[in-house]
Every structure is written in C-alpha cells, then in structure tokens.
Amino acid sequence: MIKQKENKEKVIKSRKNRVALFVVIICTIVAISALAILMRTQFSTHATTTVTTASEKIERVAIAIEGMSCSGCANGIQAMLRRTEGVASADVSYERKEAIVEYNAERTTREKLVEVINNMGYKASVKD
Ligand SMILES: [Cu+2]
C-alpha cells in the first residue's frame, strides 16, 4: 500500500519533470525559428521598402501581452508579428510584457494584431 503511494508520487514527479523539459524544448524551438524568420525578413526588407509608398497610413499601437514565460516567447511573437500582413515593425519585450507595433492601417487593424498573438496561446489586449 505504502509502496504504491510512493510509486504514484514518483510518477507525478517524473511527469512534472517531463512537462518542464517539454516547455524548455518548445521555448528553444520557438527562439530558433524566430531567429531564422528574423534573418529571412532582414534579407527581404530592402525589397519591401522599395515598394512602400508615401500614401501608406502607418499607425502605432502598444499591446499588453500576458502569458509569456521567457524571452523566447517574446521572440516568437515578434517574428510572427513581423510576417503578419500590414505590419511595418514589431518589437516585443518579455520584461515589459508588451508589443510595440507599427502597421499600415489600410492593410490591417489593431484587433487583427491582438488576434494573431491570442492565436499563439497568449492573452493580448490593446493598451491605451
Ligand atoms: Cu518562452
């Protein structure tokens, strides 16, 4: 009976360890893919800037983000925002729990940007 309880505790402990390991692995993958995407966007920046016209309506929004557990999360969100339609620039800070996004108001909305972050499993809201 006692042995069974001990075994149960061991199982729970190893399960917790496995979850922690899983989180670390996911964060690493997110960080690496974010870096890869960042490098790719940097290469293509020149091509896109030549297309931008003076008529673009660039707006800036601060978005509060809940649920980030490390800077890898921030990098992942940043990379995702940067390749989102209509986004001119995106900076995500894990420390400040927020994203500063400049976007073309004719091509996207702040609500859509919030949705992009929410779809990644975080809780985002527009700061005023
Ligand atoms: Cu993380």
Structure report:
This protein has 128 residues and is of the alpha+beta class. The protein has a single domain, classed as 2-Layer Sandwich (Alpha-Beta Plaits). The protein is 56% helix and 21% strand. It has three helices and four strands. It has a four-stranded antiparallel sheet with strand order 2-3-1-4. β2 and β3 form a beta hairpin. α1 runs parallel beside α2. About 5% of the residues have low confidence. Bound molecules: copper (II) ion (CU). Copper (II) ion (CU) binds next to α2.
Give the gist of this structure.
The protein has helices at residues 2-51, 71-82, 110-119; strands at 58-66, 87-93, 98-104, 123-126. The protein has 128 residues and is of the alpha+beta class.
The spatial strand order of the largest sheet comes to 2-3-1-4
Task: Name the shape in a single word.
Answer: elongated
Report the count of strand segments: 4
Number of helices: 3
List low-pLDDT spans: 45-50
- Report the end-to-end length measured between terminal Cα atoms: 58 Å
Mean pLDDT over all positions: 81
What is the radius of gyration computed over CA atoms, rounded to a whole number of angstroms?
20 Å
- Percentage of β-strand residues: 15-25%
**Could you please say which CATH topology applies here?**
Alpha-Beta Plaits
Q: Just name the CATH architecture.
A: 2-Layer Sandwich
Q: Which sequence of SSEs, written as H and E, runs from N to C?
A: HEHEEHE
Sheet having the most strands: 4 strands, antiparallel
**Residue share in helix:** 55-70%
Structural class: alpha+beta
**Which small-molecule species are bound to the chains here?**
copper (II) ion
CATH C-level class is Alpha Beta
